[in-house]
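[job 0417] fold request received: Ribonuclease kappa-B
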Amino acid sequence: MPSLLFCGPKMAACGIVISIWGVIMLAMLGIFFSAKSAVLIEDVPFTEADIRDDKNPPGNIYSLYNQVGINCFIAAAIYVAVGAVSLCQVRLNKRQEYMVT
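[job 0417] inference complete; emitting structure tokens
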């Protein structure tokens, strides 16, 4: 039976730590973007044409805020998946320690 083990114990532990950090940070950023925090205006991808051509400029910027917030939540979900894979690798490495070859 082929082994699903593809990384060592230190790399798997590092993946878990980075995943936890990424989930916390991106979830908080997603919340702040969804709340339309003024501090994050530099990270919203809009141009002057978006403001000039729209009759309701805040509505367009708010929709961009929401889109960036959704992107942050999607990235946090990807970090959750990477963390789950890393956790599986940690468990497989622990099982490998007890196996006699």
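[job 0417] notes: Residues 27-98 form one domain. The chain has one domain: 27-98.
[job 0417] exit 0
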